[in-house]
Amino acid sequence: MKTFCGRANPTTGALDWVEESEEYDYHQEIARSCYADMLHDHDRNKKYYEGIRAAVARVKARGERVIVLDIGTGTGLLSMMAITAGADLCYAVEVFKPMAEAAQCIVEKNGFSDKIKIINKHSTDVTVGPDGDMQVKANVLITELFDTELIGEGALPSYEHAHQNLMQERCEAVPHRATVYAQLVESELLWSWAQLQPVEVEGARLVPPPAVGRCAGAHAVCDIQLSQVSPASFTPLGPVCTMFTVDFSKPVSSAFQAHSSQFVAQSSGRAQVVLSWWDLDMDPTGSIVCTMAPSWTYQEPKMWRDHWMQSLYFLPVESQVTEGEELSLMVCHDDYSLWYSLQRGSQTEAPPSRPCCTCQAHLVWTRPRFGELNDRRRTESYVSALRSVLREDSVCLSVSDGSLLPAFAHMLGAKKVRRFHRTDTVHLSLQVLEANSMKGRVELLEIRPEQLTSNDVGGEQISVLMGEPYFSTSLLPWHSLFFWYCRTALAGLLRPDASILPRSASLHMVAVEFQDLWRIRAPCGTCEGFDVTPMDEMVQRSLDFRESREAEPHPLWEYPCRALTQSAATMTFDFTQCLPQQPISSQGLEGRCHGVALWMEYHLTDDITVSAGLNGPINEQGDCEWSRHRKQGVYFFGSPWEISGDGRAAVSYSFTFEPSLGDIRMDFSVTSQ
């Protein structure tokens, strides 16, 4: 059965009514779940297995039957480990129905269906009793309910309920406890993701609105692969502090709590950012540890996981600290999130409430967008390009979300500057203009580009149409071609000799070999001795439904890869001309690879280009330096395991841009070598 669904087209800006299978959302959720990443995490699996064996042995040593409750069982892997370790019975709870069905198949395939009961419910809905989901309470609790922030997936309420309703009073837990660590640092790079910095243009200074500088920011955690942030990018102001621990073998509370760690500043600097991660002790002795620490904190072997990363927390305000000063770092948490604050000396202050954005900037601009706006080199490119096209009589129109280009154009002497803006950005736009005495000098247009008439611009023709382009709805690199659609809609309002900035864009690609990212798409087959192919098959069916034929967005600076070819421009889009009626196609051969990275480059003028992908040339070893500001597109060739033993293949490609659909169709042919 099919249904009509309204979907916003990020490239055309239109609301498209498309016919979709009623199973579309189901397949999307499975295809993007990345269950394989967890199963490929051998360190995680090994530590869980060791912890489970130890917990089962402790219960048996007390002369008790081992009854296990596995909350969030997923594939049933941990339940099968428990039975193999000697548990008598396991209740495996999984709320996501497709995954529960896959777990049932996996349990049966491995011969454990007589000892593992799959319960397709949320753990808080599980009942205990002769007629309940569980006949008796469990004495071993196994869970994997954690996210990068530890508690963001509701671990605390789930543990709280389990101890109150599903577990025996004296029980074992795997993991046994979690410990949260934090380190206070100064970092120009990381702080640029939280606060707008002043910009120098032609000797004048564009300053951020005061409300933005005073704002505590968004409360959402910034989760990243901290291992990819060089220690040279920050200055530690204190040691790594142990902030708090949670003992999962005892009753757990989801109520608000605050914890402090005192230390002496080890260097002077600006306290700006808190780096944070956590460890899991799988047993009471702490001898089986699964750490989320960034790789630069420990020696080989290095581990990679994408389901658990590290966290950044931006302090509400930056403050100067002095070497030798006594400081106290406070962490607060409710049932789902953490936040940090800094206190001086031995003073005791009331715990701060959870941060909340009051300036709108942190709601409108993502953290990578803050970094992009603060990128001085990038700003210089746009200012230079604007300077080359602006005249005293220039009438400018800006088409980009939350952009500073209109302010730059005014500062460079344009006669008139107008900009489109979304309804949710009005307040922020006005703040920026007021802070720089530009209110009334840059006109805000509360209208869509295709609705703009000559009367809306005072009968003046537009001499400079400019955009970064950046649109908050863009997910993939080519979604920014919305700028081309806007330029076409505005064609009748442009001067014959109007300057379009950027003049054009090109879609680039490079053949790559990923160090680890391939794991999110690779089947597992056998995991720790258990056959999990039913899950592989379920995920592959969903990928084949659509996802495997599409590129997906990833911030490649967080995911190391080796370029196997030089980058190549595969398509060019000429913004000086209106959008063509016919498709644009290109094809070619791209060397040897098992996947490609795709990005856009914007040609502001004939000699100024801004890349949203590679920041520089690829060296002889294939090392790539990627932009931190935008996500790149990644197209996986089916499955990496289908390629020959050395992981290489000859690849031919064909791209077609469909103006009527606002999308790029990609077709690749892979031949193993």
TrEMBL record:
GO BP terms in the entry: cell differentiation; methylation; spliceosomal snRNP assembly
Cell compartments where the protein resides: Cytoplasm, Cytosol; Nucleus
GO CC entries: cytosol; nucleus
Methyltransferase recorded as keyword: yes
The EC number(s) this enzyme carries: 2.1.1.321
MF term (GO), any: histone H4R3 methyltransferase activity
InterPro entries, sorted: Arg_MeTrfase (IPR025799), MeTrfase_PRMT7 (IPR014644), PRMT_dom (IPR055135), SAM-dependent_MTases_sf (IPR029063)
Protein arginine N-methyltransferase domain location: 176-343, 504-673
EC class name: transferase
Domain of life where this protein originates: Eukaryota
Sequence intervals crossing the membrane: none
Keyword set, alphabetical order: Chromatin regulator, Cytoplasm, Differentiation, Methyltransferase, Nucleus, Repeat, S-adenosyl-L-methionine, Transcription, Transcription regulation, Transferase
A Pfam family: PrmA
Catalytic activity: L-arginyl-[protein] + S-adenosyl-L-methionine = N(omega)-methyl-L-arginyl-[protein] + S-adenosyl-L-homocysteine + H(+)
PANTHER family membership: PROTEIN ARGININE N-METHYLTRANSFERASE, PROTEIN ARGININE N-METHYLTRANSFERASE 7
Function: Arginine methyltransferase that can both catalyze the formation of omega-N monomethylarginine (MMA) and symmetrical dimethylarginine (sDMA), with a preference for the formation of MMA. Specifically mediates the symmetrical dimethylation of arginine residues in the small nuclear ribonucleoproteins Sm D1 (SNRPD1) and Sm D3 (SNRPD3); such methylation being required for the assembly and biogenesis of snRNP core particles. Specifically mediates the symmetric dimethylation of histone H4 'Arg-3' to form H4R3me2s.
Family: Belongs to the class I-like SAM-binding methyltransferase superfamily. Protein arginine N-methyltransferase family. PRMT7 subfamily.
Protein name, UniProt field: Protein arginine N-methyltransferase
Species, as recorded: Pundamilia nyererei
